[in-house]
Amino acid sequence: MNSLFGKTLDELQEICLYTGLPKFAAKQIADWIYAKGVTEIDQMTNLSLKARESLKKEYNIGRSLPVDCQTSIDGTKKYLFHYQNNDYVEAVFIPEDERATLCVSTQVGCKMNCSFCATGKQGFTRNLSSLEIVNMVRSLPEYEKLTNIVYMGMGEPFDNYYNVMKSLEVLTSSWGLAMSPRRITVSTVGLHERTIEFLRDSNCHLALSLHNPFHSERARIMPVESSNYLEEIIEEIKQYDWKGQRRVSFEYILWKGLNDTPVHSRGLVKLLRGLECRVNLIRFHTIPDTLFQTADEETMIRFRDSLNEQGIICTIRSSRGEDILAACGLLSTKHLKDEE
User: Fold this and answer.
1) Comparing C-alpha atoms, which of 134, 117, 64 is closest to residue 334?
2) Are 162 and 115 in contact (CB under 8 A)?
3) Three-state DSSP class for 250?
4) CATH 3.20.20.70 domain residues, the chain
5) Residue 244 confidence (pLDDT)
6) What is the pLDDT of residue 326?
7) Ranges in the chain, pLDDT < 70
8) Number of Cα atoms under 13 Å in the Cβ half of residue 304
9) Which pLDDT score, from 0 to 100, does residue 11 have?
10) CATH 1.10.150.530 region(s) of the chain?
């Protein structure tokens, strides 16, 4: 059975023509499945009974609810979604003051194999479809409270570029969930060509997982650096006009004795000089089979201050959901497969 959810307006129009419905019915269907959030075709009451029966012969809505939820002592919630072929992915809901952010996944596992990430240790299974990505948003119990979405969960978004861009179209279009692209941030480890395409094709914010300003050191912990040079990507990013509301930020996990020295802070300043951006310092959360240790608080503060003094806006990101393995770098469903 094919699903309607996750489809663009153009695709819904094609479905209407294929099933004998008028083309304008596509907007009605989109309104039902996205704005109104129906889960059954029979709930689309402004479509004729004949039209609904025609759709039901080959289509369903295709939404699915999370199958599990863990709640942190800080209010963070980690939701588990069960998709086809016994695949599991996680999404993290983070409430804070006036904001409520959802961190979504884009792949089952990940190919990038960053040495500090639990998802990378899980290995790669497959890309998520636009349906599966948007489903994590629309099927969230707290959907009505959502203010922001970050593509920072399991997987590398730009390694699943087509489905990520399609999901962004559904999320931001007036016929879809009508979210502002300024409320959405997409993260990448730095796939060069896809980053350039994203800057051209989308109005959403960009976040780049940087973690080390030096090529050889970065390549040792992030294999992507061997074929996608950070310096070249940042030079491309600098060509873009960041003076409006769109933002670029850089994620930087600070490890003790590895990338936390004055040499590294000076390297970051040199790399990012002239670019209107923000650096988010992140505490490392230990994963199995790693010798990495997070930098101490004094070092983090000193590193942050050194960047701010050189004109690079830098903040220390607060850790959320660490007790339920929902913090940065901890998402993995490998344990579920191990238990089968």
Assistant:
1) 117
2) no
3) strand
4) 68-339
5) 83
6) 60
7) 324, 326-331, 333-340
8) 17
9) 98
10) 2-60
Q: Which of 240, 133, 147, 178 is nearest to 27 (CA)?
A: 178
The pLDDT value recorded for residue 334 is 58
CATH number 2.70.70.10 given to 2-60 = no
Query: Catalytic residue numbers?
Result: 90, 328
What whole-number distance in Å separates Cα of residue 233 and Cα of residue 162?
20
Rg of the chain on CA atoms, in Å: 21
**CA atoms of 83 and 123, how far apart (whole Å):** 17
Q: What is the DSSP secondary-structure string of 138-190?
A: HT-TTGGG--EEEE-SSS-GGGGHHHHHHHHHHHHSTTTT---GGGEEEEES-
Identify the pLDDT of residue 169.
98
- SS3 state of residue 21: coil
Q: 3-class SS at 293?
A: coil
Task: Spell out where 1-98 has E strands.
Answer: 2-3, 59-60, 68-71, 77-83, 87-96
Look at residue 223 in the predicted model and tell me its pLDDT: 97
Distance CA 327, CA 90 (A): 12
Q: Which positions ≥6 away from 134 have C-beta within 8 Å?
A: 5, 6, 167, 170, 171, 177
Q: How far is CA 84 from the centre of its chain?
A: 20
Tell me the CATH architecture of domain 68-339.
Answer: Alpha-Beta Barrel (3.20)
Q: How do 77-83 and 87-96 pair as beta strands?
A: antiparallel
Rounded Cα distance between 332 and 291, Å, is 19
